[in-house]
Structure of ATP-dependent DNA helicase RecG:
Amino acid sequence: MELADRLETKFRLDANQKKALNKLGLFSVHDLLFHFPARYSDVSKVKLITELTPGETATVFGKISKLKTRKGFRSKIPMAEGEIEDSSGKIKIIWFNQAYLAKMIHSGENVKLTGHVTKGKYGLYLANPEFERTPDISIDAHNTLFSAKNEKESGKGFSYPIYHETRGITSKWFYHAIEKILREKTLDNIEDYIPEDILKKYKLPTLKTSLIWIHKPKNMRDAESARKRFAFEEVFCIQLERQHDKFEYRKNKSFQIKADEKDKEEFVKRFPFTPTNSQKKSVQTILEDMGKSFPMSRLLEGDVGSGKTAVAATASYMVVKQRPNGQGFGNLQTAYMAPTEILAIQHFESFIQYFKHLPMNIGLITGSGCRKFPSKVNPSGWTDISRAQLLKWTANGEIPILIGTHALIQKSIKFKNLALVVIDEQHRFGTAQRRKLVRKDNIGPHLLSMTATPIPRTLALTIYGDLDLSLLDEMPAGRKQIITEIITPNKRNETYEKIREELKNGRQLYVICPRIEEPDPTKEMAVQAKSAIAEAKRLKKEVFREYEIEVLHSKMSKQKKEAVMKDFTENKIHILCATSVVEVGVNVPNATMIIIEGAERFGLAQLHQLRGRVIRSNHQAYCYVFADSKSQKTSRNGSHKKYKNGRSCSH
């Protein structure tokens, strides 16, 4: 049997099996070998229903029936009930507070249940078991085909591989098909594409050994070794691809930026803070890169509030001050792409402050409109302009700095002399988009990608292997460490009083909620979590009556969002109830407190980004994580409290 052989020529397949294999994208023997098990089921742990004893957590296979929903007689809590039956008997199942499960599972389905065996008034039942559908119920602890082969092995059990399945094909079919492939010595001539010295260095099994171990492991250690090898292989191939992309991109020419030290120092003095050493070092490295004959590709990684925007503004300034090659007029151009409209507008306002002393046009383009600075009517302010007019000026080179969202990389936008592209928190801006920005005369722009998402260095070098890495590992002078506290329900009122004291001192507060509106009570699967709109009403009515409270979320119009952010920035609004729309980059230095409701619904990196909204000044910042339970020991929230910066958080 050869790796390239079609499956239908080597296996007897009916119409349903062919259809199922096509759906899974499996056409050849090679495809089948690289269709790895999702997990392994240790069938020695499966029990017969008659063997169950109260108090233990057990797994049973069987057919489910008599599914229904009801409410507790006294407690009125919703629940789902049913029965599971195997060859030895049957047992009742109860899911408390999960009535919807009665509609997700259907009577007559074969399932594997793992739950707590509980003794009730009317006998034993499985309480809140986890369930998995198992199309092939013949795989159980007492099936001779899958039981231990001899008494010596009986204590070890048998790891049966469970594959990704679809209707018409089962894990049992995969098991026997793989066994046939291995039996015919198909792997004897397989070529390993990872060099032998690398395998030895990282103690990885060969490709042949890995394929055998992943499909037929003798123990979990073998299976883990095989998975480790294939995971390494994936990362290794990504790195090779990224290095190839980097090599190819460097074949393009670029605009060589000549750095004027005096000009740079004059510009940096305009910042309302003294640059840190890591900012100075990063600016210097970026300017050195942009002075080379090939395009720069650099990732600037820095914690929230570490001053990445200031570094990008300095690089932009040095670019737009320079004339295009061989010309005594015009400017080179910079494109600055932000992840959200709110942040794009904020950067536009910031750049106006940085560049207002220069005769420089700055444009803003988002999905909902375009702006230009300066306005002919008001030279110190901006004006709304038509999209067509902005595109025309950009194509003519009259707009040296264009800030926007993803609208920046649309086909309709043409730059005359694009020399620098700055990407803020954009993980989807890859080599394909970068190639589109290369001009017909093979002049490619310099690329500066920025992220505050905490990424371990090794992972950053894999994902962004085509980019050189710069780190901002210092915070501006005088910036205090944020105080993070996990607040249980019984300490809410006490915390509100602490917040009130800070509000009296003129500080402001964010309240972050997972939902915009209250969940629909008629929908069983609706996420039960606090909503920004309802929480704003509650806080105004019950807690902070004397303060102005507003709401910010993604369903609001652009004009309404801008008006709310403007009022919040000017301290006309004291408390802002929002969704995670404020997660990235929003900068209000006077807002020094943040409450995060339903923190378990946010990822660790997301929590860290949200917390970063209040580390924008030299005032003491506070982050209050409001937990739903009375225990403080929720692992993610505990980690959030423990880690003080993104670097430690990522590790």
Observations:
- The radius of gyration is 31 Å.
- The mean pLDDT is 81.
- Residues 503 and 574 are 8 Å apart (CA to CA).
